[in-house]
What we know:
Number of domains of chain A: 2
CATH superfamily of the largest domain in chain A: NAD(P)-binding Rossmann-like Domain
Oligomer: homodimer
CATH architecture of the largest domain in chain A: 3-Layer(aba) Sandwich
Order of helices and strands of chain A: EEEHEEEEHEHEHEHHEHEHEHEHE
Mean pLDDT of chain A: 95
Number of strands of chain A: 15
Radius of gyration of chain A: 20 Å
Low-confidence stretches of chain A: none
Largest interface: A-B, 33 and 33 residues
Strand content of chain A: 15-25%
Distance between the termini of chain A: 24 Å
Amino acid sequence: MANNRRVLLKSRPQGEPTPANFEIADAPLPEPQDGEYLSRTIWLSLDPYMRGRMAETKGYAANVNLGDPMVGGTVGQIVKSRHRSFREGDFVVEYSGWQSYAVSNGAMTMKLDPDSAPLSTALSVLGMPGMTAWWGLMQIGKPKAGETVVVSAASGAVGSVVGQLARLHGCRAVGIAGGKDKCDYVVNELGFDACVDYRAAGANLFREIRAAAPKGIDIYFENVGGAVQAAVVPQLNDFARVPLCGLIAHYNEMQTSPGPDWRLLLIKRATVTGFIVSDHFGQMDGFWKEVPAAVKSGKIKYREDIVQGIDNAPDAFIGLLKGRNFGKLLVQVSEDPTRR
Amino acid sequence: MANNRRVLLKSRPQGEPTPANFEIADAPLPEPQDGEYLSRTIWLSLDPYMRGRMAETKGYAANVNLGDPMVGGTVGQIVKSRHRSFREGDFVVEYSGWQSYAVSNGAMTMKLDPDSAPLSTALSVLGMPGMTAWWGLMQIGKPKAGETVVVSAASGAVGSVVGQLARLHGCRAVGIAGGKDKCDYVVNELGFDACVDYRAAGANLFREIRAAAPKGIDIYFENVGGAVQAAVVPQLNDFARVPLCGLIAHYNEMQTSPGPDWRLLLIKRATVTGFIVSDHFGQMDGFWKEVPAAVKSGKIKYREDIVQGIDNAPDAFIGLLKGRNFGKLLVQVSEDPTRR
Lengths: 340, 340
């Protein structure tokens, strides 16, 4: 067996993360104790929230200590087990972070059936991003047929599911994405009604969104903040709902950024609700009823952006914060024996 | 009978309204037609939302046309009726605006029983401000015993009810008000747990609120915006609720004012909900069950700030926007025969 290759947080970023904030280091393989198992990481999920975990400032969760491996959701295969619920060869989704092997007590581990769906989907459409999309749209947004749903970062792991779910529930789905390729994909492959390329739109962003959502916006699924937010919020309809999922445009900022004038929210009787999916993992019955079947039947499509090798995780993550990925960003850390 | 004295909107304010924006003019008494009645205005309610109705910009409701009387809730007595549901001598709460007489078809009129509560309370604690407080706190805020509720404009018609209701539901009630007299009243008369004088606090506002709400803020009932909002929002607890009722600090502004950084809302999973009570007049069963009895028993107290004579309405309204009133601002337009 190999060493355990890990990506450690070396220093905290000031603004944009750089490769110097990370350190790649090999360690001996850890040994599972009674009640633990050792797994080999196959897939590592890279997600925008990780930027928050690199900071010193207080965020939602325990941030990463300097010298520790970066955190993250993973799919792995168990190579050695002293845990009664897990056997050698089992595939699992877990939270073992940016490392090629990990020991776990199984507290946050779920077994995966490789015959029911590709393993990697446990980190995308059938995992945390899919649940995020479903919770925000269905439980906070509460879409009604005929309404208009606008979602930023529309080609991403969360946004792509938001728009497809909105369509399945009879809504007009309008995506906002950066670049023609992403917008073409959102409309032609995912079936959104329209997509606005915010990079190409520039100063016409407000008008282009207006043209794509001529009846105004009933639900704005917020992933980005920034100029997109500023163009969308004045176009909210009365009683609009804004599931506030992410603000990727601001994650590298060192200072606070003002939000929209609350007079807009008052006049429109709008509701803005910040949420984090991990608060709701126990309330996902509706997700499990709806989304896996829709993925299997092809009604919900997904796209993966796969980077090979854990050494490339830092660069891929830095690119993610700039919108360079196209689809769910995954690092393939080791071979997936179920993948043809 | 006298003429009908009316306060007309003469010009639209640029920033703060001034007396020159209003014109006081006498008109002949209007004559009710079949299905209408004529009422004599006794009480006129002055409320912050009226600033919005003076503007040209699109707000929630039809704004006042130049040359028309200012709008507003009123209590009156019917002096002549050709309406089958209303008789001469009946007391009513209606929406007849800044004028001493009005003809109405009764579509927005409710009869009042002068024996059940003082007539003027139909414009304050048992009227629109009381319903606003109840809806925002109970239906949007959803207070749980032990939580901390902060309300701005705490001595006002809405804020005073919010804090007293919060106490009745087992919450810590913290008021924010301008001036020592108002704060003393909020704590000593209304029974709030604490009150912060934002004018005296100055740059220490954040710390004084922290001291008054040491466990953080679960519900912020927003009436004002501005510096108070900026000091409160960073102190919201996880899953905080913000019923967004008013933003009086901004009503005279000609330009948009940025709101709080949405990252604060995201990290705290907070919900901000703009609302307007008139959307919910049909959903007030809980209000009628709870509030009139609490007023009668003295568990909910109220205070009126009464200005005599409709000619003084413009100055009183201008003062309202500066926080000069102390309690529910009412104009006594004519004699209240039920008042000793």
